[in-house]
Amino acid sequence: MGVVPWHQIVLACLTGILYPLCFPDFDLAALAWVVLLPLHLSLDRLAPRRAFWIGWLAGLIAFIGTMSWVVTAMHLYGKLPLALSYAVMLLLTGYLGLYVAVYAMAVAWLRKTAVAFAFLGAPFLWVALEWLRTHLLSGLPWALLGYSQYHWLPVIQLADHTGVYGVSFLVVLVNAALAEIVLWVLHRSSQQPAGTFPWVSPATAILGMAVTLLYGQWYLGHSERENAGHRSIRIGLVQANIDQAQKWDVAYRRETLDRYGRLTAQAADGNDLVIWPEAATPFLFEQETEYQAEVMTLAQRHGVPLLFGSPALRYYPTGRPYLLNSAYLLSTDGQILGRYDKRHLVPFGEYIPLRTVLFFLNKLVEGIGDFEPGTVPTILGVPRGPGDDSGGLPAKFGVVICYEVIFPNLVREFAEHGAEFMVTITNDAWYGVSTAPYQHFGMVVFRAVENRIAFARAANTGISGFIDPQGRILLATPIFSDLSVSGHIPIGRTPTFYTRHGDVFAYACVIITGLLLPAAQLKRGRGDRR
Q: Which residues pair with 323 in a beta bridge?
């Protein structure tokens, strides 16, 4: 097989090093438009098998950079030994790197079999693999390339048709077009056969950028006029900043409840709803009646509905207990108006997959309980007074808990079922001081744009805030500070193409990829026979 030239390894490593810088908290989003250029250059005249390993190296480095926070979560809070925490992180990032490896191998193969359209096919390959990563083995769509553009509002507006995958497609298309131009120039300067100028992918990239920016600018201007007549709701967010190590310690229960009580008093004034984070109560809400009454009294005292997270205890028919990660909505008289149960659980955090094989993790990872997923996208309603702009009708909303917000189709279901605004509650204390809270927050921007629905986000240690249906970040709190904030968000329901039809664009990319590769193989076979 031979040895891969050192300069190709360096180029692949450069892509891996630059990839994390495209995302929060580095936020060098412009890098995303060239981040794959070194990898593409490294694939020039490379056999597909070698390209696989070059791509895997780039992917491994890229995901170590974006997901190094896994060590903090597993070691500091999960009590996994440090060496084993690093091993888990490397295993996870090695798995994620396989998607880049397959992409590199496929591009290298297309360069050998369908040179004229190899780079034009690259964005279809990339999106097909991102969609697969979103769903395979329970899914982990963290740091999809499109998320790097969450601040560039004109570009991300097309997500209301394509989801985040459309932005990823455009970014890869530009990367591929630049790579094709650079390779053409390099081949000409070295007197290698270069052929005519490769105009197809650059022209397609220019057209794609033009259409995207024109649509984005038009929609942003149109929405300014449209939003003027929208109803709104005023929400108070409580960010209690409870240390993860103290969260379930009975000795700190009183202090935790007192902090929530103090911050709720600040957040309740003049608001239609107050929101606490995921698993906010340091007890099982339905089980401990004394503390339950204390929380209900808060809603009564301040005369405001209260939404908060708390585990719910249930039992299997055999009598064995299990937990639900739930969000409860209390009325102004302290009664439970509704409950949503988290549907997409965190592997190894809320349940252990393949428990019969990985039984030993019960002893290694502290705090893993037997959680079961919820089953339906429950729509809750905030009672509104006759004097506000609602005419007394409740404002309908959906709740997604922590990890769920990174799954586009899951959030879409709430909008499809009638939600007029969305709430996401989370406990990002697990991430420690890292880029993860910023990455997590940035993904919410896309969920808002995809469904043209405003978001309120309450996080235990931050980032809490508000995002409007166009993806504008109206407010974002600092992390690791206890505070309460208030703000207005628009409410309403105008289902987008994405809301109605889901991941049609991603499916199309999967289908085109499935047709492109056999077509290239067929072309190669005909060439071999000639």
A: 313, 371
- Determine contact, residues 457/422, Cβ cutoff 8 Å: no
| C-alpha to C-alpha distance for 157 and 469, rounded to whole angstroms | 10
* pLDDT at residue 78 tops 70: yes
340 band by pLDDT with thresholds 50, 70 and 90: very high
pLDDT for the residue 519: 73
Helix/strand/coil percent split, the chain, to 5:
55, 15, 30
**Alpha-carbon span 204 to 515, nearest angstrom:** 20
Q: Are residues 451 and 427 in contact, defined by beta-carbon separation less than 8 angstroms?
A: no
- pLDDT score at 117: 77
The residues facing 486 across adjacent strands are 236
Identify which of 329, 331, 289 has the alpha carbon closest to the alpha carbon of residue 309: 329
> Would you state the structure tokens that stand for residue 5, as one six-digit string?
């030239």
Of the candidates 11, 66, 16, 13, the one whose C-alpha atom is nearest the C-alpha of residue 40 is 11
CB half-sphere exposure, 274, CA atoms < 13 A: 33
pLDDT computed for residue 193 by the predictor: 65
Q: What angle do CA 450, 451, 453 make, to 5 degrees?
A: 120
Residue 306 has pLDDT above 50, yes or no: yes
- Of 338, 268, 327, 339, nearest in space to 303 by CA: 268
Distance CA 4, CA 212 (A): 38
**The residue to which tokens 């409950």 are assigned:** 339
Q: Is the pLDDT of residue 529 over 50?
A: no
Residue type for 395, please? A
Return the closest-CA partner of residue 400 out of 457, 353, 361, 445.
Answer: 457
* Percent of the chain whose pLDDT exceeds 90: 74
Residues marked as catalytic: 278, 342, 402
- For 322, the token pair is 């299990």
